């Protein structure tokens, strides 16, 4: 019997053949944490009396959640983590403004076939390049940072095929929301999704990263895209290196599967107060919107900024709008291409390299009674500010069209 990608990666990492349900100890290829979780990890290490990194070539630290620090406590935490980084000899340290951890891991560090563990639930993002990636708690990450090892229960491999090509206004976010509408939040708990893309060029890395990012909302242990020509292209373009894709065997067996037909999707919106409360854009069209956030580790990539600029070049925003490219590199490229100029002239507030509004941290929170459209990943009560606010999740085109009109409208009229 052939092996799935999940089984291949975890068999290599454990040094023995594994099957779903096995409890195994594995070697970790890459570990990471950021400012919001990192100080908890270091606290655990200090309590253990061992503050060290097992391999500085396999560890990444980034300041992204509260960056720049909006409170004295946040600044104090970052001072402490800078001291940790210096004392531990950290090589891959990204300070304020460099970018969101998951985007940095995707663009510069994670590789197909790796095991990646970080102290953040959206670590699943780097499954986009075919890595087995999980977010873990502070104690587990502390143990990994010290030893380079962890344990897990081998999840059940679940196959999802991405078929055809998307129409105008449909992106990775809509695939993620469609899956949430079908399986519901936590509906694939204990499983590892392996995504097969029928036409690699029709579903680029930016789209894949969004789907993998929101895999955690489905309860997935990992959300991996089978490496293909798009994976090879992305890594060569970003890092100048060739990679050999790690793929499942032709006769690999899956516990179950599902097909996503891209040409049958339309722009979707997750309405308050759950990621699986999904409706079509036509069902919310006309609803007034107070605030729009375009960015986050879910949808702060260049293609998101590009489509937002394409729509917002049509006038001035009627809803206040904050746009945050996910890294300094994306910001610079968007600036070179004129997207940042377009957003600013349309009335958006633009910065870079912070999670900020997505988690209700800073740089634009939702007030009581306000309706917000976010390209982020979660919309439970209080996620982006006031518990009395209402957060709708959507792709960057839907968000930009809402900002431009001050209400939900179908963005496809700007894209066809």
In short:
Helices cover 33% and strands 19% of the residues.
Structure, described:
- With 416 residues, this protein is of the alpha/beta class.
- The chain folds into two domains: 5-262, Aconitase, domain 3 (2-Layer Sandwich); 270-414, Aconitase, domain 3 (2-Layer Sandwich).
- The chain has 14 helices and 18 strands.
- The chain has a five-stranded parallel β-sheet, sandwiched between helices. A five-stranded parallel β-sheet has the order 16-15-14-17-18.
- Helix 2 packs across helix 3 (72-88), helix 2 packs across helix 5 and helix 11 (302-312) runs parallel beside helix 14 (396-405).
- The chain is globular.
- The termini are far apart.
- The relative contact order is 0.14.
- The mean pLDDT is 97.
């Amino acid at each position: 019997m052939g092996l799935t990608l999940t089984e291949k990666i975890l068999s290599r990492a454990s040094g023995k053949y594994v099957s779903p349900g096995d409890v195994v100890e594995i070697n970790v290829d890459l570990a990471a944490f950021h400012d919001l979780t990192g100080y908890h990890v270091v606290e655990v290490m200090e309590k253990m009396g061992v503050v060290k990194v097992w391999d500085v070539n396999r560890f990444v630290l980034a300041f992204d959640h509260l960056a720049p620090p909006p409170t004295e406590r946040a600044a104090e935490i970052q001072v402490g983590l800078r001291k940790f980084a210096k004392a531990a000899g950290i090589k891959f340290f990204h300070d304020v403004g460099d970018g969101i951890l998951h985007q940095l891991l995707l663009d510069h560090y994670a590789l197909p076939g790796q095991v990646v563990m970080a102290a953040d639930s959206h670590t699943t993002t780097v499954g986009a390049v075919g890595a087995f990636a999980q977010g873990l708690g502070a104690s587990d990450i502390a143990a990994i940072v010290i030893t380079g090892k962890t344990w897990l229960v081998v999840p059940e491999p679940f196959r999802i095929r991405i078929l055809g090509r998307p129409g105008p206004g449909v992106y990775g976010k809509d695939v993620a929301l469609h899956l949430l509408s079908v399986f519901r939040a936590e509906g694939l708990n204990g499983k590892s999704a392996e995504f097969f893309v029928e036409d690699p060029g029709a579903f680029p890395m930016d789209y894949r990263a969004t789907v993998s990012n929101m895999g955690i909302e489905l309860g997935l242990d990992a959300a991996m895209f089978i490496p293909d020509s798009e994976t090879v292209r992305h890594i060569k373009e970003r890092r100048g290196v060739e990679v050999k894709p790690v793929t499942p065997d032709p006769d690999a067996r899956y516990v179950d599967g599902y097909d996503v037909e891209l040409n049958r999707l339309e722009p979707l919106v997750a309405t308050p107060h759950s990621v699986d409360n999904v409706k079509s854009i036509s069902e919310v069209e006309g609803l007034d919107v107070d605030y729009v956030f375009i960015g986050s580790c879910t949808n702060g990539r260049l293609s998101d900024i590009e489509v937002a600029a394409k729509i917002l070049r049509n006038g001035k925003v009627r809803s206040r709008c904050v746009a945050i490219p996910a890294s300094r590199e994306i910001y610079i490229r968007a600036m070179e291409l004129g997207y940042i100029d377009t957003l600013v002239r349309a009335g958006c507030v633009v910065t870079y390299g912070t999670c900020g509004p997505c988690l209700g941290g800073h740089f634009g929170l939702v007030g009581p009674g306000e309706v917000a459209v976010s390209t982020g990943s979660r919309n439970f009560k209080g996620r982006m500010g006031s518990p009395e606010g209402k957060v709708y999740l959507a792709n960057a085109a839907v968000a930009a069209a809402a900002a431009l009109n001050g209400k939900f409208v179908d963005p496809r009229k700007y894209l066809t």
